[in-house]
Specification:
Layout lengths: L1 H12 L3 H5 L3 H24 L1 H7 L3 H29 L6 H39 L26 E9 L10 E10 L5 E6 L14 H4 L11 H4 L4 H11 L10 H14 L5 E6 L3 H7 L3 E5 L3 E3 L11 E3 L2 E6 L1 H9 L6 H18 L2 H6 L1 H11 E3 L6 H13 L2 E4 L3 H4 L8 H13 L33 E3 H4 L11
Parallel strand pairs: 1-4, 3-10
Antiparallel strand pairs: 1-2, 2-3, 4-9, 5-8, 6-7, 10-11
Length: 489
């Protein structure tokens, strides 16, 4: 019996070997050759075609084919295990031995079927995520994204890809959608180095491009003079997503998300960049994706309120206390990014960028493999975008560069740029962003520096505008543990 079970196990680990030992040499040799050929093919593809495999992971038709292949291979493997045991089992064996052998074979088959079932489920979950979140270029409408996609080489004539990241809280109990988080990620398509530009949600008189139909209605930007502070709330950046489409429905043309198109145009004009696509996160579902990743780790440099209303002097009931490398689940991560009691927008923006960095760090290959079904399910509830399906293979390869590249923060001087005033200095803001992108950030400094590139040609500015420098700061430095002792009460 031990010898029989040993050869059965060996035939399961190396398909075909059990058949050869059991006397079925031809079919055994064929199965063994096929198995070794498949192993060689997998090794070859893994070593030389990794990017193509990852790109195929965002193509629905290939994902469906992959699920079928996984199921077929698992079925054939199970058939080989059963056939090997039958060939090895003696015809005169007793009933007890047969029952024990059948149980052992059943366990081996389960060891093959269970991982295969998980694999098929993960592949189909990925397929559902791609189909639900990303629409084909011809099946979706956008008034602001590029009209064509160069599938063969999307970055051929595009040195930088500019993505608008929006965070909106469209809860059932809340009227309308406010984009409290507005971040532009400008990605170097050659290196993957990424610069993040965070805009305060309370910016007023946000401009529109000269060729935008909205320029006619807001020639001086989205705003009104002579309003009280409360009156301005409906004329700030955070209100544009809802209020502009409500006032001028369909003005930009066919669109599946008019609010995002409006914000893309205005934010792009404000910082001097042509924004290509947007990614909108529903903050109500944000904790779900963090929990699916198994939580994140951040350095907490100051007490962060979980609730509370500063203007009404209502203190929070809970706090996230300072400390290095703290683990945050989804609920705490959301408050870490959004907590505003006793904090200003600048502090919140830094925390939001650190959360983005922590999520990128948490999405390592082991986590993605072991928890992907939960991640995909959360992604279906979390994301909305105008990135077309056709672009996804190239986006996956670019994401790998971002993962290994430098993520930096473009520092905005609120006072010099007048960001907290009724009329911010948008020309100076454009110059700041331009300078920051021209001076590539170095990944090594431990203290904020202002790198410069000798011989850089600057665009001329108007006589009335003094453009501040465009510093960048590596987020590894900005998000390091460095408590300043100035804590909210």
């Amino acid at each position: 019996m031990p010898k029989l079970l040993g050869f059965t196990l060996l035939g399961a680990v190396i398909p075909g070997l059990g058949l050869i030992v059991g006397g079925r040499r031809r079919i055994g040799a064929f199965v063994l050759t096929l198995f070794l050929g498949l192993i060689g093919l997998v090794v070859y593809v893994g070593l030389t075609r990794r990017d193509e495999v990852l790109a195929a992971a965002v193509v629905p038709s290939r994902l469906l084919m992959t699920s079928v292949v996984i199921g077929a291979v698992a079925f054939c493997w199970i058939v080989v295990i059963v056939a090997s045991h039958r060939s090895l089992r003696p015809a005169t064996g007793g009933a007890g031995g047969r029952a024990f052998g059948a149980t052992f074979v059943g366990l081996l088959c389960f060891a093959i079927a269970a991982p295969a079932a998980v694999g098929v489920q993960s592949v189909l979950a990925q397929r559902s995520l791609v189909q639900d979140v990303f629409q084909a270029q011809g099946e979706s409408k956008s008034a602001t994204r590029p009209s064509t996609v160069n599938v063969k080489d999307p970055w051929e004539d595009k040195p930088r890809l500019n993505l608008l990241l929006l965070g909106g809280d469209d809860a059932p109990s809340r009227e309308g959608v406010r984009t409290d988080t507005v971040i532009v990620a400008s990605i170097d398509t050659k290196t993957g180095n990424t610069a993040l530009v965070s805009l305060p949600r309370n910016l007023t008189f946000m401009p529109f491009p000269a060729d935008s139909p909205l320029r006619k209605y807001y020639p001086n930007g989205f705003g009104k003079e002579g309003l009280s502070l409360d009156g301005r709330l409906e004329w700030m950046l955070t209100a544009m997503y809802q209020n502009v489409p409500d006032a001028h429905p369909g003005i930009l043309g066919p669109s599946d998300n008019e609010g995002a198109d409006v914000v893309k145009q205005s934010v792009g004009e404000a910082i001097g960049l042509k924004l290509d696509y947007y990614l909108q996160v529903n903050l109500q579902s944000f904790p779900e994706i963090v929990d699916a990743l198994g939580g994140i780790r951040v350095n907490v440099n100051e007490r962060v309120a979980m609730g509370g209303v500063s203007s009404s002097h209502i203190p929070p009931k809970e706090w996230i206390e300072p400390g290095p490398n703290q683990y945050l689940d989804g609920r705490h991560a959301l408050w870490f990014a959004r907590g505003r009691y006793g904090a200003d927008d600048d502090q919140r923006q830094v925390r939001q960028r650190c959360v983005i960095k922590s999520i990128v760090d948490a999405a390592d290959p082991q986590t993605l493999v072991t928890k992907y079904k939960a991640i995909a399910r959360a992604g279906r509830h979390l994301l909305r975008t105008d990135i077309p399906q056709e672009l996804l293979p190239a986006m996956v390869q670019l994401a790998l560069k971002v993962k290994s590249g430098t993520v930096s923060n473009v520092t905005l001087d609120s006072d010099k740029l007048r960001l907290k005033y009724l009329h911010p200095d948008y020309q100076a803001l454009r110059d700041t962003v331009e300078n920051a992108l021209e001076s590539a950030p170095a990944p090594t400094p431990t203290t904020p520096t202002t790198p410069t590139t000798p011989g850089t040609t600057r665009k001329p500015t108007t006589a009335t505008t003094t453009a501040p420098p465009g510093p960048t700061q590596n987020l590894a430095d900005a998000c390091a543990y460095n408590p300043n002792g100035d804590q909210p009460n």
